Amino acid sequence: MKKINIGLIGFGTVGTGVVKVLRDNSGVIKERLGAELILKRIADTDVSRDRGVKLDDGVLVKDALTVINDPEISVVIELVGGTGVAKGFILASLDAGKHVVTANKALLSTHGREIFNAAAEKKADVYFEASVGGGIPVIKALREGLAANKIESIYGIINGTANYILTKMTNDGGKFDDVLRRAQEKGYAEADPSFDVDGIDTAHKLAILINLAFGANVKLADIYTEGIRNINQLDIKYAKEFGYRIKLLAIAKSGDSGVEARVHPTMIPAGHPLALVDGVYNAVHLRGNAVGPVMLWGLGAGMMPTASAVVADVIDICRNILNKTSQRVPLPSFTDEDGRAIKIKDTDSLELPYYMRFSAIDKPGVLSKISGVLGGHNISILSVIQKDRKVGGAVPLVIVTHNALERELRAAVKEIETLDIILEKVVYVRIEENLGAAN
Q: What is the structure's pLDDT at 392?
C-alpha cells in the first residue's frame, strides 16, 4: 500500500489532536484513502513538554525548515497561528512544492489571495476547513456541496467564547464581566478575550465565508464589527419578553445593491434553530437559491473537533495526490484569480427593526418626547415596555421599532441622548426576524 508522508508545524493543542486522530483512526483513514498516512516530522519550538502522545525518536524537531525542506514530505500542516511566521511557513512550503493544510483564519482573511495565488503558481492545494467552525464542514459545503447555488445569505454563530458567555447570561443570569471571568477560569476564554468578545475572530471567519460564497476579495476592514461587551441582563430579560434571544451573529446577505457584511449582537426569534445553539457550539445557517436553507451545527473549537477538520483536509489532498491532480476545486471556490468586484453595503443603508433601551427619568411626557424624536426620523414604534416605576429616578424604557433605516436610527439616538430626561447612553440592538428566508 502506498505511503504518503506528512509534516506538522505547531505542536500545541490542535497539533496534539491531529496526532491523536491520525493514530486512533489510522485504520479507517487507510481504508477510505487507500494509502497510509505517515506523520514523518513535527516542528515546534518546545520539544520537551509532554503532550500525552508517544512519538518515535527524531520525529519532533525545533526547526520548521526541517519539515519544509524534507523532499519526502508531500503535505505540510501549519498550526502555528497568527499572521507573521505562519505566512512565511506556508509560502515556503508552497515554494518547496508541498501542499498545505491550515486552520489559520486570521492569516487567510488578511492574506488569503496572496497564498492562493502562490499555490496556483505551484499547482499546489491549500485546504483550510478548520479555519471556520472547528469540526463543522462549512468550507466544504460552500466549495463543493452548494456549488450549484447562488448563495443568498449566511448567518453564523462562529465564536464559541461569545456564545458561551451569552448563553450563560441568558440561562443562569449574571453580569457580563462575571460570566467572562468564569469562562476564563474554565478555559473557554483567553486571558485577553478581546478577539472573541469584540467580534474580531468572528469577522475573520466571516471574511473567509464571504470570499467562498460570493467569490469576492473581502477584507476585514470591509466588515462592520461590534462585540458583546455592552449587552447586560436588562437586554437579555427584555429580549425574552419580546420572544427573542441575543446571539453574536456573523451576517452576509446578497442583494441587487450589494452584499451586507456585518458582525454584531442580534436579537433573533427564540424558536429559530440558531437561537437554540448554546454554549461553545457553533452553527452556520446558509441559504442557496436552489437548495433553500441549510444549517450546519457542531463544536466550533477544541482539540479533537478542529483536528478532525484538519485531518479531513489532509485526506482530501492525499486523494488528489493519488489521482495525480491538484486544485480540482478552485481554492477560493471561484475561478477568478483576484476575486470578483462586489459592493459591500454600508450599514447606514440597513433597514431593520431595532430594540432600543433608554435610561430615563420617570416623569410625565418622557415617552412622548422620545417618540417625537423617533417620529421625526421616520421611525415608528411597534412595542413599548416600561416597568419598575421610580418617580423622579431612573427607569428603563424599552422600545421595539418597525423597520427603520440605520442612518435614521443613529441620528435619532444622537438627538435623544441630548435630552435632559436621558441619563445614560442609549443601547440599541438590531433584530433579524426572517433569518434565511427567501429574498
A: 53
Which positions are annotated as active-site residues? 205
Q: Which amino acid is at 61?
A: V
CB contact set of 308 (below 8 Å; sequence gap of 6+)? 17, 21, 135
C-alpha closest to that of 396 among 233, 230, 170:
233
pLDDT score recorded for residue 338: 56
* Residue 71 pLDDT exceeds 80: yes
Domains of the chain, earliest start first: 3-135+303-322 (3.40.50.720), 141-299 (3.30.360.10), 350-431 (3.30.70.260)
- Cell 503532550 belongs to 51
Residue whose C-alpha cell is 429559530:
272
Residues 142 and 147: their CA atoms lie apart, in Å, by 6
CA distances from 75 to 4, 82, 128, 312 (A): 8, 20, 13, 13
| pLDDT score of 78 | 98
Write out the DSSP string of 186-240: TTSS-SS-HHHHTSHHHHHHHHHHHHHHH-B---GGGSEE--STT--HHHHHHHH
Distance CA 129, CA 138 (A): 7
Helices (H), 71-104: 85-95
Distance of CA 429 to the CA centre of its chain: 19
Query: Rounded to an integer, what distance in angstroms lies between the CA atom of residue 114 and that of residue 423?
Result: 50
Count of CB atoms situated within 10 Å of the CB of 256: 5
Q: What average pLDDT does this structure show over 106-119?
A: 93
Task: Confirm if 112 and 208 have CB atoms less than 8 A apart.
Answer: yes
Q: With beta carbons less than 8 A apart as the criterion, state whether 199 and 225 touch.
A: yes
Exposed, middle or buried: residue 262 (CB in 10 Å: 0-12, 13-18, 19+)? Answer: buried
pLDDT at 340: 65
**DSSP code, position 345:** P
- Say how far apart CA 218 and CA 210 lie, in whole Å: 7
pTM (two decimals): 0.93
Q: How far apart are CA 305 and CA 231, in angstroms?
A: 29
Phi, psi of 396 (to 5 degrees): -75, 135
Contacts of 82 (CB under 8 A, 6+ apart): 104, 106, 107
172, 178 contact by CB (below 8 A): no
Measured between alpha carbons, how far is 306 from 220 in angstroms, rounded to an integer? 23
